[in-house]
Specification:
The protein has a domain of 157 residues. It is 59% helix and 3% strand. It has a two-stranded antiparallel sheet with strand order 1-2. It has a two-stranded antiparallel sheet with strand order 3-4. The chain is globular and about 65 Å long. It starts with 12 loop residues before the first strand and ends in an 8-residue tail after the last helix.
Length: 231
C-alpha cells in the first residue's frame, strides 16, 4: 500500500488564492514587480520595445498614456492567458495570444478615442502596434503560459512599469531640453532665454531617443555592475 505521506499534494489554486496561503506579496512575488524596474528592465537590459522610445517620447503626455495603455494590455492579457493556459493547444498558442492581445488593444484604443481623442490621434498607429510589441508577446510566452493568475498579473504590471519608466524619463528630458516645456506648458522661464539659452532642437529628433536610452543604460550599468557583460 502506498504511503500517503510520500505522495505530494497538488497545489489547489483558485484564481488569486491557493491553499498553501502564500502571501500575495511574498518575496518571490515582489521580485516580479521589482526586477523589471532594474535588473531585468525590458528596454535597458532586454533591449525590447525600442521603437516606442523613438516614436512617442517627444512629449511627456503621450509617453505616459502609452505606458498606462501597455500596462493595462499586459496585465489583462497575462491574466487571460494564465486562466486559459491548460486549455490552449500548443500548436495554436501564438494565435490565441495574438487574439487576446489584439482584443485588449482594441478596448484600450476605443477608451482613448472616447476620453482622450487628441492623445489617441497623436499616438495613432503606435497603440495598435502594442499587438506586436515584443515585451507583451514575450511575457505571455515565457511567463503567463506556465504560471498562475496572480503571478502573471504581477509580472505584467512589473514589466509594463519597467517599460513605462524608461519611456517617461526619455520623454521628460526630450520635451524639457527640446522645447523648454512639460505637458505642453513652458517651464523654463523667459529670463533664462533672455540670458542666451536656446532650446536644443536635436532632442526632438528620433536619434536623440536612442542616445538618451544609451545614457540611461550607461548610468544603470555604472551603479549595477552585475549587468555588465563579461567577455
Amino acid at each position: 500500500m502506498e504511503d500517503k505521506k510520500s505522495t505530494p499534494e497538488k497545489k489547489a489554486t483558485v484564481l488569486f488564492v491557493n491553499k498553501e496561503k502564500e502571501p500575495l506579496f511574498s518575496k518571490k512575488n515582489k521580485k516580479l514587480l521589482s526586477d523589471p524596474m532594474d535588473d531585468n528592465n525590458p528596454i535597458t537590459v532586454q533591449v525590447l520595445g525600442i521603437c516606442s522610445a523613438l516614436a512617442i517620447t517627444v512629449q511627456l503626455k503621450p509617453a505616459i498614456v502609452m505606458s498606462i495603455s501597455v500596462m493595462v494590455v499586459m496585465a489583462a492579457s497575462n491574466v487571460i492567458i494564465s486562466l486559459l493556459r491548460d486549455l490552449i493547444p500548443n500548436r495554436i498558442r501564438i494565435i490565441v495570444q495574438l487574439v487576446v492581445v489584439a482584443s485588449m488593444v482594441i478596448l484600450v484604443d476605443q477608451v482613448l478615442r472616447a476620453y482622450a481623442y487628441d492623445v489617441s490621434k497623436e499616438l495613432s498607429i503606435f497603440i495598435g502596434l502594442i499587438i506586436t510589441n515584443c515585451i507583451v508577446m514575450g511575457r505571455l510566452e515565457a511567463f503567463a503560459l506556465g504560471n498562475g493568475v496572480w503571478k502573471s498579473f504581477l509580472d505584467g504590471i512589473g514589466n509594463a512599469a519597467g517599460y513605462g519608466v524608461i519611456l517617461i524619463i526619455v520623454a521628460f528630458f526630450r520635451e524639457l531640453l527640446g522645447s523648454g516645456k512639460l505637458f505642453g506648458f513652458q517651464v523654463i522661464p523667459d529670463a533664462i532665454y533672455e540670458l542666451g539659452y536656446v532650446n536644443n532642437g536635436l532632442m526632438l529628433l528620433s536619434p536623440m531617443a536612442l542616445i538618451t536610452v544609451g545614457i540611461l543604460i550607461w548610468i544603470q550599468r555604472s551603479r549595477n555592475r552585475k549587468l555588465i557583460e563579461k567577455n
